[in-house]
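Many introductory courses stop at the sequence. We go one step further.
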Amino acid sequence: MAASERDGAPSEIARARQAPHEHVPRLVVARDVSGEGVLDRIAEVVNRLIGSMWLFVGISIGIVAWLFAGNIVGFDRTPWPLLLTLLNLPQLSIMISLQVSANRAQAASDARATADHATLVALHELAKQQVRILDGQNQVLEILRRATVGEPSGGA
């Protein structure tokens, strides 16, 4: 079963088709589609940490400090091999967290697209109703035009 079917999207779209004048557009934001499990909450914390500018600044300062302090203090005379090794260790977990972040963003995007689609379906149904009304009005105008053409103009 697709995620949109589980979320009740087809029923929302069906309701928009049946009663477009009653459809109320929904605003869907990322926090509306966040999970409720422990792993979902951990993923949110990791996404906020890994995706923050503060982590980038901290790592950049740490690298510069390591390069200078390693030579000055003497704990690492050739800083590149050890530094690169230490920086490469967390890359696998960071790549996985980036994929988790992308999946969560995709879920939010899908929910927004479903809500937008239901609104567009309602607008389309309203437009079709308007066209039917206009066609009916055109028919009435044509009947009136035919009726007035047969009558003498200007006379009482």
